[in-house]
Design brief:
The chain is an all-alpha fold. Helices cover 70% and strands 0% of the residues. It starts with a helix and ends with a helix.
Length: 732
């Protein structure tokens, strides 16, 4: 049987179980298990089948069974596990994938005790070596390091390729990870192996093991377990409810305030991964090319006093966050620095190209904490790096680089010719102010250690699932939403109103408005919403074009904090977008009292007057804008159009002429100028302008569409319907 057919059968069972069609799933599994020579698996299937038959018999006889629903759910859960095991058993026989090769090589957890014993011995000998004379210490360390490099992939592979765990297996793996008889870094790699094993073949004992490790006093282990746990829970969200053991383990976690705080921090970090592709694109297309063109950035004096005019009046309230005004290169560097401070992944584009070293041919090395004693690093870098006495050392200790990228950096450094490398090291180790500044920047406060570790680990995982040669072995968890509030099962892991509000505001900031609104509805139940919260909820609804709901929330914000310019303008916008010009105007007028010289607000108020055919009031505002900002094209266009509508053709012609003389006149400028000429019977001039409009859009149909959109105005100005159709034929 080929891999495709095996996968199809596995999926058919998953589909049946998803619809809770248990009998169909059991029948398919029965057919498949007959051809397997796995007596343990067959025994478990027979027990499942017998329990299901008894449950049906009890139901046929009308006998009371208070455990029926619980048993039904547990049987579905067992079917999922057996289904995965059958598929893996078949694939192990035939597939060339790394996972199946590992399964054939290590045969589950049977060899874990022996590998663990050798790792313990290696770790103990490494500690002993420190007391030996320098030469003997170096020699023994080299031998032990070489041995360790062989043991670690075996340790990782044995755990990763293990299939279904027993309770004893789970206790054994947890005991190994909790032990201090092997290095902390090795135990961290083991946590990653458990995560990847659960992602490949989920079953309750692996998940509960991650839950148990999540409470570890070692933050490196706990944060890795939490990240893995969230990914596994999302990957198998539909299955989780069928495993009471997982529900119980999660309930225990919810009682641990430290774990819950870390979950909330990691949740934001996982959501931040969505921004990595955007940042990666901006780095490659904008920031890095700009920096390459300006090699002397450090000495340049770049102005920061050019303000960016924001004409989009659906902008976020500036009181919600600090706007960063960008000015050419300095602005881009400021933005990059801000991303770094937020914990964003700014180096994906750079280091994703540096993963072809043999070091990354071992899966475990992708998820390995950075360690200067690893042979491929120790052979390259000077001893001073361990003391962080150089810029190079500071980079290796930096919180801004993930573990994987630090290895890439060191391996890339090795390729530099020795003479150049020595010269670089000499420069890097000079005690200058820059070196001191970088070293200071890499110091991580104790209270932030767990946050930095989890963020670096998530970035390691992101590279693993996106660019490693092993990515084809897995379904990429980063393609999932990873938003706990989108899952009824997982929402309780965001247990505090503070955490929920933090998530809500992050989603608003990153413009995930639908998700933000749903998160806000959950927070709203707490009754702790303030004016800003209701503004943000209205903003989310407005962005999703639900204007009635937006108005409701904006009104709540206005009641709590009345006479707020931003709120009044956005209520007006929503009414305007609904075509309720009178209501829109009433709110624009209230807003105008608060900011009588706000250019954008004057324009919107004037446009609302014009929509109600109150042209004198409209002109008054447009002229005021022209006075305050003489080069405002928006004001010129509004004056020109209202002049055309009201028959002030000479004035309209003058304004359109000014617009067409400016750089890059718009399609509509030529089109509307042509309207003026046509209604005043300057047909030749009008056709010339219509042709220019067509030249800009390159499409006669678009010109015709716009002419027809303006037909009511044209009719009022004396153009007949026949004349309009003939005009369209002329410019076709």
């Amino acid at each position: 049987m080929d891999e495709k057919r095996i996968t199809e059968i596995q999926k058919s069972v998953i589909d049946a179980l998803g619809k809770e069609r248990l009998k169909r799933a059991i029948d398919i599994l029965g057919e498949e298990i007959e051809s397997l020579q796995d007596w343990e698996l067959r025994t478990r299937y027979n027990e499942l089948q017998t329990a299901y038959r008894y449950m049906l018999d009890y139901l046929r006889m009308g006998m009371p069974d208070p455990d029926r629903e619980r048993l039904h759910g547990e049987l579905i859960g067992k079917c999922y596990v057996i289904n995965d095991q059958i598929a893996i058993a078949r694939l192990t026989e035939h597939s060339t994938k790394v996972y199946c090769q590992m399964r054939r090589k290590y045969k589950g957890l049977s060899g874990i005790d022996g590998i663990y014993a050798r790792l313990k011995e290696n770790h103990a000998n490494t500690e002993v070596a420190q007391s030996l004379p320098a030469e003997e210490c170096r020699s023994l360390n080299a031998t032990l390091a070489k041995e360790h490099e062989q043991l670690l992939p075996q340790f990782f592979g044995t755990i990763w390729s293990s299939n279904c765990w027993s309770k004893g297996d789970a206790e054994k793996v947890h005991g190994i990870i909790s032990s201090n008889e092997i290095s902390l870094n090795d135990r961290a790699v083991a946590v990653s192996a458990v995560t990847l094993s659960a992602l490949k073949c989920m079953e309750p004992h692996k998940v509960t093991t991650l839950c148990n490790i999540a409470t570890s006093e070692e933050s490196l282990l706990a944060t890795r377990a939490i990240v893995g746990l969230i990914m596994v829970l999302f990957m198998y969200e539909r299955r989780i409810k069928h495993y009471p053991a997982i529900a119980n383990a999660l309930a225990v976690i919810r009682e641990n305030t430290t774990v819950m705080h870390r979950i909330q921090t990691i949740q934001i970090q996982l959501l931040r991964c969505r921004e990595t592709q955007k940042i990666d694109r901006k780095m490659r297309e904008e920031i890095i090319p700009a920096m390459m063109k300006n090699p002397n950035l450090r000495n340049s004096k770049l102005s920061m006093d050019i303000l960016k005019e924001i004409e989009d009046d659906e902008d976020k309230n500036p009181e919600w966050r600090k706007w960063i005004e960008e000015d050419e290169i300095k602005g881009k560097i400021e933005e990059m620095s801000r991303w770094q401070v937020e914990g964003a992944d700014v180096y994906m584009s750079t280091f994703s190209q540096l993963k072809s070293f043999p070091f990354f041919g071992e899966m475990s090395n992708w998820l390995r904490p950075f360690d200067t004693s690893v042979p491929c690093v120790a052979d390259i870098l000077p001893k001073e790096i361990s003391g962080n006495k150089s810029i190079l050392g500071a980079i290796c200790a930096s919180q801004f680089f993930c573990n994987s990228d630090k290895y890439s950096f060191c391996l890339t450094f090795e390729r530099v010719p020795k003479e150049q490398r020595d010269a670089m090291m000499a420069q890097m180790t000079e005690a200058g102010p820059d070196a001191q500044a970088i070293e200071t920047a890499t110091e991580i406060p104790a209270e932030k250690k767990a946050e930095v570790e989890s963020n670096q680990y998530i970035q390691d995982l992101y590279r693993f699932f996106k660019v490693s040669n092993f990515r084809g072995e897995f379904t990429d968890p980063f393609t999932l939403s990873l938003n706990l509030l989108q899952s009824e099962t997982l929402t309780p892991l965001i247990d505090s109103n503070e955490a929920m509000l933090r998530m809500f505001r992050y989603l608003v900031e990153k413009e995930y408005y639908d998700e933000a609104f749903k998160a806000g509805r959950l927070f709203e139940k707490s009754g702790e919403g303030d004016a800003q919260f209701f503004q943000e909820m209205g903003f989310c609804a407005q962005k999703e074009c639900d204007y009635d709901t937006a108005i409701d929330y904006y009104t709540k914000a206005d009641i709590i904090k009345p006479d707020t310019l931003w709120t009044l303008r956005h209520i007006a916008q929503c009414y305007r977008l609904q075509g309720e010009s009178e209501k829109a105007l009433s709110y624009y007028l209230m807003a105008e009292e608060l900011a009588p010289e706000n250019i954008s607000l004057l324009m919107q108020t004037g446009e609302s007057h014009a929509a109600l055919k109150q042209y004198d009031e409209a002109f008054a505002r447009f002229y005021k804008v022209e006075y305050l900002k003489p080069d405002s094209r928006r004001a010129m266009r509004a004056i020109a159009w209202c002049s055309f509508i009201t028959g002030k053709d000479s004035q309209a012609r003058g304004y359109y002429q000014r617009l067409m003389e400016l750089p890059h006149p718009a399609f509509e400028d030529y089109l509307n100028a042509a309207h003026v000429e046509w209604v005043t019977h300057n047909n030749a001039k009008a056709i010339e302008l219509y042709e220019k409009a067509k030249g800009i859009c390159g499409n006669a149909d678009k010109v015709a569409e716009h002419i027809l959109n303006d037909k009511e105005v044209m009719f009022e100005r004396g153009v007949s319907e026949t004349e309009l159709q003939l005009l369209i034929d002329i410019i076709a």
